[in-house]
Design goal:
The chain is of the alpha/beta class and 317 residues long. Helix content is 36%, strand content 26%.
Length: 317
Amino acid sequence: MIARIGVVSAAPAVDRTHLVTELRPGTIHRPAQVLARPGGKGFNVAHVLHTLGAQVVVAAPLAGATGRWLADAAVANGLDVHPTWVPGELRTCVSVFAEADGSLTEFYEPPLRVAPADWARFSADAIAVMTDPGLEAIAVSGKVPPGSPADGLAQIVRAVVAAGRLVAVDADGPGLPDAIAARPSIVKVNGAEVGALLGRSVVSAEEAVTAARDLRAMGPGAAVVTLGREGAVAVDASGTAWRVHPVEADGRFPTGSGDAFLAGLLVALVGGAAFADALRLATGAAAANTEQPGAGIVDPARARTIAATVRVEIVGR
């Protein structure tokens, strides 16, 4: 049976990846390859969900010619997109990968400003879409756009939780505390994001376990903290703490790997996998994402091959 999963993309963007031989500030560059993708956290998650076999419905505030391009491209990529049209133009985020030294330089424009009235329209639209009884899980991804209420994400999370869905939140910025307090099933953040939230450094696995426990105490059923090349930790709904050990991977394109992690986690959980096995597929998807330029591009066979090698252990109860 094919899983149907919804995604709320709060701060979409057009993502462009430029591949150059060498990055030389102050000079003209002629990229050997340019990739343009519907992006932002939510669309990255949605693309990987689709690649891993799910039917995906996306709700997003879109604007202008860039928004129409994004919607058309996402539909062409197999996503079911439900836009709420707002004034303005979407942001463009640019990543420049230099082959000579493997460096990645990123330019992220701020999200489109969305007025409170326009956010209210989007929130109502998103809730209507995401409470469809045919959806088995919902990912709420991104940050509250400038101009919108601080509890904007929380409004959506509360409504979808009340509808009885498995809800995963992956957000940062001022809207994150309220979204966590809305009691989603899962919150997934990286070490920097949870460190900013808790006001302390979260770098090591030990620090991440403590941070995940503190996150879970704030409302969600489970908390996951990703640590990039150092793997991840999680505390599940029973309070059991898990350590996901790093995998052997040679990926050079980390952008979007946290979003791929969330997609793998949701696909596995909706498919009935045990929590440890869901963490394995999540890690496999994240590692596979790093192997190709452009966020949210994953070889599903490669993701599952890597997942089979992931070591996960209980580190506390």
